[in-house]
Structures are given as structure tokens and as C-alpha cells.
Amino acid sequence: MPLVDASSARSVVIAGAGGFGLEVFEYLYEESLGGGPNIAGFIDDAKGRQPAGIDLPNLGTTWDYRPLANQVVVVALGSVEARQNVIMRLAERGIQVPTYIHGSVLVSSTARVGRSAVICPFSIVNRNTTLGDGVLVNVQSNVAHGASVGDYSVLSPGVILNGDAAVGARCFLGTRATIYPGVKIGANCIVDSHTGVSASSADNKFITSGLQQVTARRIPA
Fold it and tell me: Mean pLDDT across the stretch 31-51?
């Protein structure tokens, strides 16, 4: 079932009324037509914000939203910091934020997926992999055998983690970034789009590539 550990959910609210919220709406809407939970609306910390062209209400901010019975929230935010803050805020208020896995995703029975993660269409999470709490795996990404992704990290569309690669907590990997087999990336790192990472990195690094892979600068802690 797309909403993991939320079998009693009758309706779902999307946290985030921006572009990624539109994409998550599309996934949930198609699934609602096949018997999945109805979409009740959006919450967003920009008061009153609603995605263009979608006739659903804004139900408040993540600070003041009050769920109905059997109502859960899927967090549709692509920012590492925003994902962590909103997921933790809702959880502290006792609001259920289940993991969402699109029906087209292949997830190995040996994979371990944390709470409040989101895995988008046509991604693969292979054998003996680990995804931490709040992780976002965007469309057409591949987490190969033995690879791991730390809490609240974001994999943009088309990211590839090769076998036994590891990404620390709160990292952001740009579109089509590739982590080579066995390479370890520390916490709080940013990997630039289309960058192939062939050497391990410490925490708080911005990693990009030109003729050679370079660590361009340290990210302030």
C-alpha cells in the first residue's frame, strides 16, 4: 500500500503547496481513483497558499492544522531543512506522517525504510539498503544493493547510489548526481547536479565536478 503503516487512513493532507506538492497531488489523486484515501487539501506555512488549478482548500499552516479522525499528512517539501522541521513539528503534535511509496516503486523486502519517507515513481530501492527517517527519493532514482541514506536527506530526480555507497544525514543530492560504489558522503553535504562522486567526503561539503571532481567549499556548520 502506498501509505505505509497507515492502513486506516481515510483521507490525506499534503504539506507543501508548491511545485513538489503539485507532483505529490498527482500521485495521490491517481491512487484515490483506485480506492486510495481521498485528498482533503493542503497545508503550507505561507498562509492561504494553494497550488494553481487545484480545487482543494488550504487547511492552515503546519503550526495550526488540526487533523480529522483517520487523516494523515504526506510532506511534499524538497528542502532538507524544511522537511526535517515540518515532519518533526507534526510528529511532536501527534499528527501521523506515514511513509509514502508510489505504487510503481520497486522496494526490496530486505530494504529498511524509515518513518515519514517519500519514494516517488519509478525508483528502485534494492537489497539490503537503508533509508532513514524523512528521506525523499525523487523520481527515477536508484539506491543500489547495500547503500544507505541518512535521515532527512533528499535525492533529486535521477540520482544513483551505487552498491554500498553511503550518504549521511541531511544531505541534498542534485538531479542525476551519482555516488560511486562504496563512496561515503558525510552529513550536511550538497552534491551538485550531474556530479559523479568518486571519492569519499567529510561532513559539511559542497561537492561538484569539472574536469576533475573537486570539493569547492566548506558549508558553514
Answer: 91
